[in-house]
Amino acid sequence: MAVIGTIRKQPREAWEVVVDLSKIIAKREATISVAVEVPAGMTQQGTPIIGADGFTIYVAGGTSGAVYVWTLISTITIGTRQIIAEDEVIVYVNEVTGAEA
């Protein structure tokens, strides 16, 4: 697939990323598994929360002034077939100080 979103956050914040796979699943019965490539310097809070049509992850950490790319690999099993979708989320981390507000 592609870059599915960008996040602008401060180093101490944690933000959710919701991935909608409903167009791929198309109301069929499916099983979803997820592999998350966490960039060095950032952390994932918990494990992916998988639903019927997608999943949610929480991104945290990072160093102010840095840009990170998270890679999310979804394996969707429908019957005996597997669809693998690779998506990226770009995270910009910047500390906001009183002088910048």
What does this entry look like structurally?
With 101 residues, the protein is mainly beta. It has one domain (3-93): Sandwich (Immunoglobulin-like), CATH 2.60.40. Helices cover 4% and strands 58% of the residues. Strands 1-8-7-3 form a four-stranded mixed β-sheet, with no helix packed on it. Strands 2, 4, 5 and 6 form a four-stranded antiparallel β-sheet that branches. The longest helix is centred in the N-terminal third of the chain and has 4 residues, at 22-25.
- Rounded to the nearest angstrom, the distance between the terminal CA atoms is 36 Å
| CA gyration radius, whole angstroms | 15 Å
* CATH topology label: Immunoglobulin-like
Biggest sheet: strands, sense, closure? 4 strands, mixed
